[in-house]
Amino acid sequence: MSVIQLNTDADSEQRRVNRREVSVIQSKLDTRSEQYAINRQQMLDKLALLDELYEQAAGGGGPEAMERLRTRDKLPIRERVAKVLDPDSPFLEISPLAAWHSHYTIGSGFTVGIGVIAGVECVILGHDPSVRAGAMNHFNSKKLMRGLEIARENRMPYVQFVESAGADLGAGGRRGGGGERRELTPEEEREQFLRGVQEGLRGSTGHFAESGRLFYEITELSKMRIPTISVVFGVSTAGGAYQPGMSDYNIFIRGRSRVSLGGPPLVKMATGEDADGEELSGALMHTTLSGLGDYLAETELDGIRLCREVVAHLNWRKLGPGPTLPPDEPVYDREELLGILGEDLTIPFDMREVIARIVDGSRFEEFKPLYGPTLVCGWSSIHGYPVGILGNNGVLMSESSEKASQFIQLCNQVDVPMLFLHNITGYIVGTDFEQRGITKNGSKMINAVANSTVPHITVIVGASYGAGNYGMSGRAYGTRFAYTWPTAKIAVMGPKQQAGVMTIVQRAAAERRGLEFDEEADAKRVERAEYQLEEASKGLFATSRVADDGMIDPRDTRDFIGISLSACHNNVVQGTKEFGTWRM
User: How far is it, in rounded angstroms, from Cα 103 to Cα 43?
Assistant: First the structure.
């Protein structure tokens, strides 16, 4: 991913004056050690798999489907997005691996992300016409709703490229969630559809009710004075029709755009009318008669040009402050991030080594460095944006929980966003720790996280287990953006611990009943459970279920955070003075 310059509008002299005399982190990472080499190779292997999956996602419905688009002079969704962006500007794609390892096409036939159009940061999303004609399913509905959430929380113009056949009642596209590139034959497609339609109909009521929320959210954006823009590239019926229907600006393409609540077949079934497609739903009709269309483009490229013009005239201004600190590159090479941790998360590492390779100039003003050492807290900046950082260096204790609570308050007091770096197995347990108040102090930390109003950004670099995920502002706690490294693991607890707890419970149950406990059967069950829990805890599984905003290359962490911080500053960045009751 190309590096974006996020500080072009800040005054260089003012930034020189604002340069804080902050200590540079002194790295102790041994890049010549055997463990570093092992970690690095493991990470490179994971990144190779990630690149392969990204390539599959970019392939949409497969080579034949892409070729059919070309023969009809239609652009794939990612090319549409690329052409609407400003030259040499990056596109931060959200959840590109959604639906991996499912019955749906990897990527879910939908693209959403953040990009710059005519100098304005926008949420951009669109249907992939190469995948089941852009039909909506559970996964891409979640991605669409996530795009709306990002636009609302960060006050960003919302641009959607619409081409959708409505709800998908079938099995979702290429088999294997994108793992198999072969297109289905018509006979296989029909067999798969008939086999899946009953299940699809069973689930369609819930999906229908949930997906209808998107229309509500689009109108909410407009009410909040956040512009919504639709470019209709093809047939958009039923739910697909309401997307432009709810938008502030609509661009239709002559001879291509067709928008109606029901297409000719449904009209025939409902009324007996033999409707002509163009007269019923065409671009010319909507721009001359119904008034649904605002602009009539001649081609797809012309529609994209008009979209850029609409964004350019929005007179859009960011409400948050721009970068105020020097955006110096880290002192240490970001390549070294590859060897800091590996697959075995029981091997400890210092989170300061990660911080040193993502923050400006590797500068870090640590808060309470001698108290609660299992949590690193401090102030720094990334791409010129001030940020408070919390990073795990072990299990959360009472002292580290108290330190976090105070630090979160201080970040809110000075309106500074926070970055949470996860490698947490949870809060400490045990009689002594309970008597010393771990439940009370852990709750205090979660209270602080839940009530904080400055933007939170989360990166799960290692483990993120149990309540530790909550205390470190996991996805359920309103974090603005959440990313994972390939080494991430997310679960209620570690696989060995979870399987072990099950054994303890079942052994106790057998003793109560006076039964002999089958150790051999239990050993097999534990082995099977540990394997299943280990696979389910992997970050790749979570990212495929849209439980985060994407799995990233560690070397890109600084830029992903920088773009995310810039997006957050489209809205007001303001902390709170109000927190829930804290037990003392």
Answer: 28
